[in-house]
Amino acid sequence: MVKKSNLAYTLHTLNGISMILAVVVMGLCLWLRYEWDYKHYVYELEAQKVLWTGPYILIASSTLAMATVVIGIWATVVEDCQLFLLFVMGSVLSVILGIAGLAYTLDHGIYKSDLTPWLEERFFVLFHEMDHNERSARILRIIQEDIECCGPSDWTDYAAFNKVLPDECRNPSTGNIAGGGCSEEFARWMEPKTGWLSGIALLLVVIQEAYRPVCG
């Protein structure tokens, strides 16, 4: 009886922690999806597939995690074996989705990942279009000013292609030219957001993995 009570207490504790982490992961994903400035950058860079695929997978994973928590709590209360089986299967699927989502997010959302070369290629497209495409010129100006970067790789891109260095490349207070290129600086700007999301998603996966020995 004591052993069964301890098992129930452990499962309730793990379920409670999982629910909190799943809500946090869901909240961060929705914030990355709907925060105005970030959403604007994603649409203008046409980076929906690159930057939102990982969060979408993590939304599915965290939603499933929350559902399995409810099932797990109810299964513990009524001591139903079929509900326990459904709980374990749901947890396994949520773990698989969580690992896939955080792996994709890390691979396409931090500095020195696949994101940086993709951004450099995309910024060069905007860079070459800026003389005859107002939309490309506008988004490049906005990002250079907001992120404090200059050129796709660095400020020398303007000299290399005989383009006038825009005011957005200079610090408004000091007049100094921004040292970093937009591909690297944008990736660095992204890293804290995706890093926190991936870290919490990984912790959720670890907690869900802890169900296995307990349920076993």
Write the layout of secondary structure elements.
Blueprint lengths: L1 H33 L1 H10 L2 H31 L2 H27 L7 H15 L4 H14 L8 H5 L21 H28 L1 H5 L1
Membrane topology: Multi-pass membrane protein
Pfam family, one: Tetraspanin
Main location: membrane
Classification by helices and strands? mainly alpha
Mean pLDDT comes to: 89
What gyration radius follows from the Cα positions, in whole Å?
Answer: 23 Å
Fraction of helical residues:
over 70%
Structural write-up:
The chain crosses the membrane at residues 12-34, 55-77, 83-106. It is a multi-pass membrane protein. Helix content is 78%, strand content 0%. With 216 residues, it is mainly α. The longest helix has 33 residues, at 2-34. The radius of gyration is 23 Å and the shape is elongated. The mean pLDDT is 89.
Question: What is the structure about, briefly put?
Answer:
Its main location: membrane. The protein is mainly alpha-helical and 216 residues long.
List descriptors.
transmembrane helix; 216 residues; single chain; Tetraspanin; transmembrane
